[in-house]
Design a protein that fits this description.
By secondary structure, the protein is an alpha/beta fold. It has one domain: Spore Coat Polysaccharide Biosynthesis Protein SpsA, Chain A (Alpha-Beta Complex), CATH 3.90.550. It is 43% helix and 13% strand.
Length: 296
């Protein structure tokens, strides 16, 4: 089994990841987006010859997709790719869970929800007693199905945060329709927060190099005021990308046509936002008129 730890780093790299790669006899490929000389030099010294310095896009998915595209094109994609972040331990899963599953050779979510388990699970008698009779999961948009399967209501709530900038899409459903010809529009989304997985080669190879390069164009265009919000959508789409065999739209495998379609999406989003702004302005005006009429 030829495996690789594909690690995106940003000023941090856990030595334990390198130790486990050596234990499993896996290769290591590090995409380092560190923005300090000290961070770059530290990571270089930890894995000399395995580090590729990349532009900081604010997230890790562009590193993964770049690796996929390059190695699919070269015909040397490893049998198994472990998608990791330099700070995964303690942030997205415990070291104990990581050590338990990292040797898996099948599609695996590298995520573990411990601190919020009560909030994301069905309330038990013990949970209610600990919380004074209150159900901590009431009103929560997220749940966990297993120790690593996290589901969330498909509401695209993250696209309406002020610090998140979107240029092409502001809704998960719209991206699904843009990528796939006839997608299932889910009520819930199953994904691994942090975008860390173990993925067999055949599942990555469901798509070609252009597919991954095209998706990167959705999520690498700015860091002001925050990184592209479309990355939050792609993060939630990864299990679909790695498992769904539905037909994709033809432009997903054609970079020139994709660029044209992306421009159309940008213009469509601008029109949608203009229509929303006008609708809000009209409602505000009508509310003011109604208020004045009531005072007459």
């Amino acid at each position: 089994m030829q495996g690789v730890f594909l690690i995106h780093t940003y000023n941090t790299l856990e030595q334990h990841l390198l130790d486990k790669a050596e234990e499993l006899r896996y290769d290591v490929a590090i995409f380092d987006a560190s923005d300090t000389k000290e961070g770059q030099e530290t990571i270089e010294s930890m894995a000399p010859g395995h580090v590729r310095h990349v532009e900081n896009t604010g997230h890790n998915i562009t590193s993964y997709f770049t690796y996929f595209a390059d190695h699919l094109e070269a015909g040397d994609l490893p049998d198994l790719v472990c998608l990791l972040k330099g700070n995964i331990l303690g942030r997205h899963c415990s070291r104990e869970y990581f050590d338990q599953v990292i040797g898996n050779t099948f599609f695996t979510f590298l995520y573990e929800e411990r601190p919020m388990r009560d909030r994301y699970s069905k309330a038990t008698k013990e949970t209610l007693e600990r919380n004074g009779g209150k159900d901590p999961s009431e009103g929560c948009i997220a749940n966990i199905l297993t120790q690593s399967w996290y589901i969330e209501q498909n509401s695209s709530w993250y696209m309406r945060v002020d610090t998140h900038t979107s240029r092409y899409f502001d809704d998960y459903d719209d991206v699904l329709r843009f990528v796939y010809k006839d997608p299932v529009i889910p009520k819930y989304v199953l994904f691994s927060p942090g975008a860390c997985y173990i993925v067999p080669r055949d599942q990555i190879a469901l798509h070609g190099p252009a597919f991954y390069r095209n998706l990167n164009k959705l999520q690498d265009y700015t860091l002001t005021p925050g990184f592209p919000a479309e990355a939050y959508i792609i993060e939630r789409m990864l299990p679909v990308i790695f498992t769904d065999r539905s037909a994709v739209n033809p432009w997903m495998e054609d970079e020139r046509v994709f660029d044209e379609k992306l421009q159309e999406a940008k213009e469509s989003l601008a029109r949608k936002r203009q229509e929303r702004a006008e609708a809000i302005a009209n409602r505000t005006f009508l509310d003011k008129v109604k208020g004045r009429l009531k005072r007459l």
